[in-house]
Design goal:
- By secondary structure, this protein is mostly helical.
- Among the domains are: 94 residues, no CATH class; 59 residues, no CATH class.
- Helix 19 packs antiparallel against helix 20.
- The radius of gyration is 27 Å and the shape is globular.
Length: 532
């Protein structure tokens, strides 16, 4: 009875932590969908580890005693998320993004699809292994997850589900032997390539955008191949490289696909840019070790674990799964399952337990401190947004020493200083922010600072850089046009006006129409002056 109670406790603890990592959202944070998930997952995991160490259980025994039950609990959380997405699609619940109908409890479909795609193999496995009512329940649940992935529009999610389905069927049924003896293998291969082609054609512009990102990332890797650009290397350097790419290829077919980019949509590329081939090699060695452990894994459901890791690999090639807390939690748990055979059966020594508890308490207070700062930042930024900017600037200054390593805080602080007219102070903060994250919006604020500080040449240079970063944007061109007009540089003003008028419009808007009309009007005035 005592053992059963312990098992129930650990089952519930793991499932509850995962539930929060998937569903928790909070308006009290600037990142409504993600921040609370990270803080909750990290803090609750630390508390769980402390409790676990104090109870002095046998680590590998606890893992194996609860594994199958926990697995079903995790799948139930994925099923709830799938239901949530379906309700969003039919309008019963609101989406978290105006461009997507289905986001689940995340900011876009990528987070939603990563949850249900990683857990889908569990449901499919039990469909194959159970009978009667239980099989029907898991079959229905798997179908619901399939439907929700399709409704989300996540091509990476669909590809992950398709790949894990084929892999599991090959491993757990006699389909493999039949395929080898028949022509069905060719049929499956043709079907798979057809699906990939359809997914490509469905959103070909999106694919083109990612190809652009990977091409530019290749140039970054060439420049620093061994050790990369550092922890924030991609997001602090990519947009400058994209600007350089378009400077060299002014009529590139990709210029209307370019946008602000903070992630390469490929975890392998991100690791290589940030940490070079040395970092990539370490990561690949770890992956090889995981798959080696999978091959040596003698217990039931090795195929499920393999499919989960295969789904993660698919996501890592076309998205950013490690942006989400639930992925770290799942991979941590499943990796512990794989390593459990190598863990000592005896109780953890006292000195090791004391050390672990000390580390846990230290991390608990560090994360709590960061969370409190984040909450305070949200409160200040909201008040500033509601017209109290100058009143809030001293609060921003007080928070700055505690959050100066947070690039989003630096950007927010610099933007508020710009709005309040403190252009010199804004420039200092924005230049500091550039070391951690650099994009079109930051360059536009910097250029505006330089303009108001009368650094005309610097303002023009920065507006030009912003225009090169995203060539389809009209605003940096218009700002250059206005500076040339004010300074009396008629030739350059005419040149910029002609560029604006002849430029293809990517997205029609009132602002773009107004800019084009202003440029046309200026050219008309110049022509009239010449006629006189």
């Amino acid at each position: 009875m005592i053992k059963e109670k312990k098992d129930i406790f650990w089952n519930n603890l793991i499932t509850v932590v995962f539930l929060g990592s998937v569903f928790f959202t909070s308006e009290k944070f600037n990142s409504t969908q993600n921040s609370i998930k990270y803080y909750y997952t990290a803090l609750s995991t630390i508390v769980g580890v402390i409790f676990f160490i104090l109870k002095k259980p046998k680590f590998n025994t606890i893992l194996y005693n609860n594994y199958l039950t926990v697995q079903k609990g995790l799948f139930s959380v994925g099923l709830l998320q799938a239901f949530y997405g379906i309700l969003q699609f039919f309008g019963a619940c609101s989406s978290n993004h105006h461009l997507f109908k289905v986001t689940g409890s995340f900011e876009n479909p990528a987070g939603f699809a990563s949850v249900i795609s990683l857990l889908y193999p569990i449901g499919l496995y039990w469909c194959l292994k159970l009978k009667g009512l239980e099989r029907c329940i898991f079959l229905g649940s798997s179908i619901i997850i399939l439907i929700s992935v399709i409704l989300s529009g996540s091509r990476t999610g669909m590809l992950a589900v398709l790949t894990s389905t084929i892999t599991l069927l090959l491993l757990e049924t006699n389909v493999k032997s039949k395929l080898i003896k028949s022509k069905y293998l060719m049929l499956i291969a043709i079907s798979l390539f057809s699906v990939l082609f359809l997914l490509y054609k469905w959103k070909s512009d999106s694919v083109g955008g990612r190809i652009l990102i990977w091409r530019v990332s290749t140039e970054m890797i060439k420049n620093k191949p061994l050790f990369g650009f550092g922890i924030n290397g991609f997001q602090s350097n990519y947009m400058d490289y994209q600007a350089r790419y378009f400077k060299q290829k002014e009529s590139s077919k990709y210029e209307y696909l370019a946008d602000n980019v903070t992630n390469p949509f490929n975890e392998f590329v991100r690791i290589t840019v940030n940490f070079g081939f040395i970092g990539l090699l370490i990561f690949l060695i770890f992956l090889c070790f995981i798959f080696f452990r999978l091959l040596k894994f003698k217990r039931a459901q090795r195929s499920v674990l393999l499919c989960i890791y295969v789904s993660l690999l698919i996501f890592s090639c076309f998205s950013y799964p490690f942006h989400y807390a639930h992925v770290w939690f799942l991979m941590g748990y499943f990796t512990l399952i794989l390593l459990a055979d190598k863990l000592p059966v005896r109780e953890i020594p006292l000195i090791v337990r004391v050390l672990i508890i000390c580390l846990c308490f230290m991390n608990f207070f560090i994360i709590t401190f960061k969370m409190c700062n984040d909450l305070q930042w949200k409160d200040i930024s909201q008040k500033s947004l509601h017209g109290r900017t100058k009143e809030m600037l001293p609060k921003f200054a007080e928070l700055y020493p505690k959050m100066k390593r947070n690039e989003l805080f630096l950007y927010n602080y610099g933007a508020e200083l710009n709005y309040a007219g403190y252009y010199r102070e804004s420039t200092e903060i924005m230049n500091e922010c550039c070391k951690k994250i650099n994009d079109y919006d930051l360059q536009m604020i910097l250029a505006d600072n330089y303009y108001h500080l009368k650094y005309t040449l610097k303002a023009l240079e920065t507006y030009k850089n912003a225009a090169d970063m995203i060539p389809c944007r009209f605003l940096p061109l218009y700002c250059q046009f206005e500076i040339y007009k004010e300074s009396g540089d008629v030739n350059n003003a005419i040149r910029m006006a002609q560029i604006i008028v002849s430029k293809r419009v990517k997205v029609k808007s009132i602002a773009v129409n107004w800019i084009i009309e202003a440029a046309k009007e200026y050219l008309k005035e110049i022509n009239q002056q010449h006629d006189k």
